[in-house]
Amino acid sequence: MLKAGSTIGILGGGQLARMLAGAALKMGYHTHVYDPNPKSPAFEISSLKTIGSFEDHGLLKKFAKTCDVLTYEFENIPHKALEEIEQIVQIFPRKTSLYISQDRIKEKQFFKSLNLETVEYATICSFEDFSKSIKQIKIPSILKTCREGYDGKGQLLITNKTKKKDVEEHLLQGPCILESFLKFEKELSVIIARNDNGDVVSFDPGENVHKSGILYSTTVPSQISKTLQIDSIIIAGKIVNSLKYVGVLGVELFLTHDDRVVVNEMAPRVHNSGHWTQNGCAIDQFEQHIRAISGHALGDGERYSDVTMINILGDTTKNFRNITNAAVHFYGKDEARPGRKMGHVNYVSPKTS
Ligand code: AMP
């Protein structure tokens, strides 16, 4: 177990790092946050900060030498950066989990290797690939860039109105995946943790609503049967066990109209749809992640209330400044851009089920 007063390094300094740093501080640890943006929200909370590029290997190594263990808050970290750092300090979650999640094709193949159901998909590198595959995947479908897509970015909905030029332009961003469009009943996510001893703890599945590809709300309990809740947790459990994962993982799922749970994607980090745990559980996802990567016993994951988490997006912050019936979490960002995550609120009520 990491000694009190040790330093946890965090790559990326956004709101997830800010909340991780808060949890680490509470557990008696220092944090050192690395991010290129001098205005990173996590810098206010971390004991140490380094402003630098993820391409600056000299600076990354210097940073790594100050850390006793290292974690990250976002997926798009260059491989070379991780390989350099790994020579110096242990990284959790391990880089294999990150590499799988960085590439939508690798991710789908990985899910298939575990016999998990995914939507039908095809790899698309050219317009010829697209023309061939659309016959099988059919319309409507979604063309997604394999890498660096988040919050609905890098996605093109394919309908009978889509033009060849739109597809060709989209493909300029790099290799893509064509996914059949699933008319799902609900979107769910499971936030699960595993430590190096192999202990696994899940939080209750949350029911998510997205608007324009961005998470808008998460509600617990999800309005699905206990059996489906357990099915969802088993899927997430298979993923963490097969990866010998260490840390918190977010798994996004679709529930079909005929009650099948289809896995969409995974994020090897704390997750926006797990923010409800801050006010619904004694041990939230941030503390759970710090526990997992520092070699502590995992917290119990029990939920004590019903919660709806709402994201505060763009310049809507003022609507939430004076509310008194929800716990507010602002990220300290000064510039509100459309769709930018500025904070979130948790509406809490007594547990019903
Ligand atoms: P993703 O980046 O894959 O999580 O996609 C963002 C959001 O787009 C999801 O949360 C869904 O609301 C929607 N979406 C993504 N893939 C599909 C799909 N194959 N069928 C229907 N909706 C999808």
Structure description:
It is a single chain. This protein has 353 residues and is an alpha+beta fold. It has 3 domains: 7-91, Rossmann fold (3-Layer(aba) Sandwich); 120-180, Dna Ligase, domain 1, CATH 3.30.1490.20; 184-350, ATP-grasp fold, B domain (D-amino Acid Aminotransferase, Chain A, domain 1, 2-Layer Sandwich). The chain has helices spanning 15-26, 57-65, 79-86, 95-102, 104-113, 127-137, 164-171, 226-243, 277-280, 285-294, 317-320; strands at residues 7-11, 30-35, 48-51, 69-72, 121-124, 141-145, 155-158, 176-180, 186-194, 200-202, 206-211, 214-220, 247-255, 261-267, 305-313, 327-330, 341-350. Strands 9, 10, 11, 12, 13, 14, 15, 16 and 17 form a 9-stranded antiparallel beta sheet that branches. Strands 3-2-1-4 form a 4-stranded parallel beta sheet, with helices on both faces. Strands 5-8-6-7 form a 4-stranded antiparallel beta sheet, sandwiched between helices. A hairpin with a 5-residue loop joins strand 9 (186-194) and strand 10 (200-202). It binds adenosine monophosphate (AMP). Adenosine monophosphate is lined by residues 119, 142, 149, 152, 179, 181-182, 187, 210, 213, 252, 264-265.
Highlighted features:
alpha+beta, Dna Ligase, domain 1, D-amino Acid Aminotransferase, Chain A, domain 1, 11 helices, Rossmann fold, 3 domains
Largest sheet descriptor: 9 strands, antiparallel
Shape: globular
- Give Rg in angstroms: 20 Å
Q: Overall mean pLDDT score?
A: 96
**Helix fraction?**
25-40%
Order of helices and strands: EHEEHEHHHEHEEHEEEEEHEEHHEHEE
Bound molecules: adenosine monophosphate
